[in-house]
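Quick board copy: two proteins, each given as sequence then tokens.
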Amino acid sequence: MRLYTITVIVELHRIKNYKEETLYLACSLTDRYLARLTALNKPSPCLIRLAFVCTLMAAKLEEPMQPSFNRMVRLVAKEWNFTTTRQELIELESEVIRELDWDLVRPGPLFFLERFQRVFFLDQERSDVAAACVGSVARRLMRCMLLRSCSLRFKPSQIAATSLLLSIGILKSPCAVHMGVQQLPEALFE
């Protein structure tokens, strides 16, 4: 159930070319809403509609341009051959907001990754090749964890720390070549 919804969010994120923050916020909204429904023993709504609504909500909060419900309805019909109405999306959005008691924005793993990169002096990705590689692999690892429901047990800060440390470890090992990234010399991490 969750995997399908998150997969739709990831695909929608790719199509709309939204910021990474939007992706993580949409997934957080979805996860928290579904957890709340489970706790209250309420049935889940249409999962594809939930994915669209949570993505729209996240885009409203994170993107510089406001998303359009009408464009989303057309995109959904075109890409997924799924019929929904603007009103159905608005009603589900209201339901999500009520169930989450307006607690919509929480820092995601990307926020913590950027903080940890500063702590380890790996935040200069534009000018430092090693920092760029570490950041890129860490974001890939976080995206993989996003699709796994077992990662819901962990706080966003733990996911970010794990991704960063795994990224450093991978890039120092011969495994880097198998992942399609260049192995970085040990001296860069001392």
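And the next:
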Amino acid sequence: YTVKHFTAEEGLQRKHNNPKYFEHKMLHDAFVKDVQSMKADIEQNGVTVATGPMMGATLANWLLSHINVHDKALGQYLQSVGNPVT
């Protein structure tokens, strides 16, 4: 779902010429890489005592930083160019 969401969001950014598109895409790519790395680690080593905190920190950072800062700024940009985000 995350990859599908990112693809749609990035398409919207390209369509409306978001000047921060490449920066935003790099953040998406880094998050996907982090999640894939955690998944591979769990598949190889199973769930360990480090797994929960690692996943929690990654997701908390994403929620607090990316969504609250970068996606909020994207919404403001899209509204400024006449494409309200609902």
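Board note added afterward: The mean pLDDT is 92.
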